[in-house]
Amino acid sequence: MDKAEKNKSSTMPVLVDLVAMYIITGILLVILAAVLGRVEMSDAAVSIGIIATYIVSCFAGGFFIGKKKKKKKYLWGICVGVFYFAVLLLGNLAVNRGLDGQFVHMLTTAVLCTLSGMAGGMVS
User: What is the pLDDT of residues 34-76, one digit of tens each?
Assistant: First the structure.
């Protein structure tokens, strides 16, 4: 197997898992929106729901990649958690044209995504 094939075989499962993670995120956010439509929730409860969505999605992504890779599962889980956060950050930067004083929130989200991805990889 040459280097190009080996690179492709390493990146493809990560990309597939990232897509799966964003599908899970979308489903959970639709459920959260449906609950918001029926029940009036506080801003804190909505924030908790969004954070729980990030955690569940990254945990699932870490779990999926760990099942595929078999070795160094926690590192692969960290990778998908970091990549998931990176896409979130790029989307935020594109929409808001900057962080607008959200540094602490973004740092917390980065840590949660990374750790929950790692936990998913470890459990797999």
Answer: 998 898 888 888 899 999 999 999 999 999 999 988 888 989 9
Which residues, 6 or more positions from 49, have their beta carbon under 8 angstroms from its beta carbon? Answer: 32, 35, 41
pTM for this predicted structure = 0.86
Angle between helices 73-96 and 3-38 (to 10 degrees): 60
Determine the Cα–Cα distance for residues 55 and 50; give it in Å rounded to an integer: 9
Q: How many CA atoms lie less than 13 Å away from 102 in the CB half-sphere?
A: 12
Count the neighbouring beta carbons within 10 Å of the beta carbon of residue 1.
Answer: 7
Q: Work out the number of other CB atoms within 10 angstroms of the CB of residue 118.
A: 24
